[in-house]
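Figure caption, in words: inputs first, then the predicted bound structure.
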Amino acid sequence: MADKITSRQEDYSQWYIDLVRSAKLADYSDVRGCMVIRPNGYAIWEKMQTALDGMFKATGHVNAYFPLFIPESFIAKEAEHIEGFAPECAVVTHGGGEELTEKLYVRPTSETIIWSSYKKWIQSYRDLPILINQWANVVRWEMRTRLFLRTTEFLWQEGHTAHATPEEAQEEVIRMINVYRTFAEEYMALPVIVGRKTDSEKFAGADATYCIEAMMQDGKALQAGTSHNLGQNFAKAFDCQFQSKDGVLEYVWATSWGVSTRLIGALIMAHSDDKGLVLPPKLASRQVVIIPILKGNKEEVRAHARFIARALNHHGIPTFVDDSENNSPGWKFAEYELQGIPVRIELGPRDIAEGKCVAARRDTLEKTELLLDDTLPANIEEILNNIQQNLYDRALLFRQENTVEVSSWEEFKAKVEKGFVIAHWDGTAETEALIKEETKATIRVLPTDEDYRQQYNMDEPGTCIHSGNPAAQKVVFAKAY
Amino acid sequence: MADKITSRQEDYSQWYIDLVRSAKLADYSDVRGCMVIRPNGYAIWEKMQTALDGMFKATGHVNAYFPLFIPESFIAKEAEHIEGFAPECAVVTHGGGEELTEKLYVRPTSETIIWSSYKKWIQSYRDLPILINQWANVVRWEMRTRLFLRTTEFLWQEGHTAHATPEEAQEEVIRMINVYRTFAEEYMALPVIVGRKTDSEKFAGADATYCIEAMMQDGKALQAGTSHNLGQNFAKAFDCQFQSKDGVLEYVWATSWGVSTRLIGALIMAHSDDKGLVLPPKLASRQVVIIPILKGNKEEVRAHARFIARALNHHGIPTFVDDSENNSPGWKFAEYELQGIPVRIELGPRDIAEGKCVAARRDTLEKTELLLDDTLPANIEEILNNIQQNLYDRALLFRQENTVEVSSWEEFKAKVEKGFVIAHWDGTAETEALIKEETKATIRVLPTDEDYRQQYNMDEPGTCIHSGNPAAQKVVFAKAY
Ligand SMILES: [Zn+2]
Ligand SMILES: [Zn+2]
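Bound structure (zinc ion present):
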């Protein structure tokens, strides 16, 4: 059984660590900064992969696989890129018992190794677009780690596309950040703000970075996915030109986009509670647990439990029975609440006699009596749908309640300690840096979503919250993971 | 369009390379010994993963993920293991800009890093069994590489299980080699011999290795999957004990088992021909291509082609239309034969008028006229089933025709140049080594399958083909990839 979980109130960071370890989602390994993703955690990643992979394929992408190792000279070809990534790389210096003539970097991201292939594959406009995604592990040396959110090795997908025109590339960038938004909202039940990053916060080597930003239960922001317009930067670095329809040689236009296992951390921090994991049903590999109350004719209770499980599974609701006698029903209730199983069905001899059962939903812990007849699957499905919707609604409400517009610097400093702060910014990197230095808050996003911009009058001109200079728009500030 | 492919007759090795590159399955990268798996090749791996992952889950396994890096001291804990793997490892010596105090090996296989976690997870018999699989990349430094078959980095799955008794562990070892056999036969259409490896050929750190061995079209053997009984070797190396039901501390029993992207190489070498890839329908992500002959009322032909594609897709037969006018039908026929699409449907204005189409199957290149009515999906499905069966049958026939029993050393040396040779062996590592030295042939497998043993009278005692000493059984020799 689980160790006690610290409450969110008492210590939010400790709550997160306790939960991840008690629910057996992940563990630190004996390798500094690297995690073990345990079966309960990996099952969430598999559900995420299946949903995302389907969305990538529906938008015309195919999967491929490129090498783990990147020669030092490749990383060095794009100036901003090497400056951003080289310091946090793991470096292979020996292979097959010998010292290598050129060092190999373990990929921190794959733009360079992929563009060294694209250069060979692209001659003419007929070879474009290339719409490739890769599921892979990447390594970025981290000094301070946190399970799922920041580890030296993590799993992700990285899309890398090549286009004949800047318009097409920009369309792709927007298409994919919207795919991430849909995934976050519809599968993770996580409301996100879609928008651009400032130049200081963008990807090393990109012309522009789009992101989705979510709010965690402690009011901090978490960047949940990014989509980069790479312009012609990598095509130029790898001398990748194509013959256009007009017979002119031009550099190829590029995008890249990715999400990672940090989404599992976001999922936990957005929805879970002091009893443990709360999972949106769409990302739960097991949606229902049936716990028979083994009294009286135990075998009859067991048989009924199995029969109901078969019926629910038959209706596409993944269900399992825990009828072991090693643990009490109470122990099992706590254990599956900890594991985040969305619905628990309790079933005793009296229930069976009365033709009913009790269904407890994980998000609100409410219990409902349901009939043990052919209405059961539809009733369970409705509860699951309600959970999925309720998680989204309450996360959105929480974000709204913790988003505040401010117009004085004193107010800014006070409010940015928890939640999102909407304030005017003069558009300079200098002001951005000063605010970060003084408050540790950063500009999370310049929202692009029209509804969001209108809700907070983002386009209204005003005075910069820090410099006092004229500001063309408001932006979203927060402390972030 | 593809470059010309060398014929198998002319140069089998060159044929393989030409095919892999022309069909855009894989490419060498700019990193020595590492390949790029291109979308056409990766699509095969995805089909393999889906089928295998389903079989693993059906036998009670769950997925997890362990670190890429293994501390040098871990690899060193199992004596045979370090001797076998350390010389072929890639070694990380620097991370985050600093020299590491302990070198990290990029995993060549994960027994050691996984058992360092299992040690923490296992206290009592209640914690057993652990039935975990991992999908991952691994690195083994290779001097001589061949796309898919032998590369420095490759993709694989590795199962790692922990058990309370040696009987349970052995059951698992046999269960999983049989899963591989079923996968090879039913999905890859590849007949395999199931059996044990000799001690000289077993996994470094195992008590016993079971394998499936397949024959390629040049008569060479290819090891397509292995399942290892690791005894208590790794539990002892990592001091992993559990309290048994009787309250006694015992070391845990272990297995591991894996298949890799080398299966794609096996698939190609077993079935493909001088025109290109031949794919078993069950591993083809696109089973049917419709090529409209664009004459007369082109739009009507196109519309019919799309209508048929929808009908076939609706019946679960993945179908696409190539109606581009950039390339001629003849060019398309060759291109999709190269890519191994199992069935091609040709459809011209006259066919439509007569209510029929022509279906060409990739394995035999035979053409059949089919009616354009609601019998079409069932007829196409029958052709697909026939292809799947025919590929298996002809590979089995080929193996039988190229398996020979010999009783003299002269005959052995002649016959072992191509195909499998069944011969008596005295059971000593010394004889095994001498035979390898003189002929480059190895003992591929001590078959465990009763049918196979009976077919070749494997249990018949006799005289060792090389030493002339008494031999209790016959074994299977071959040159191998
Ligand atoms: Zn200031
Ligand atoms: Zn000899």
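The pocket of zinc ion (ligand 1) is lined by residues A 434, 438, 466 (CB under 6 Å).
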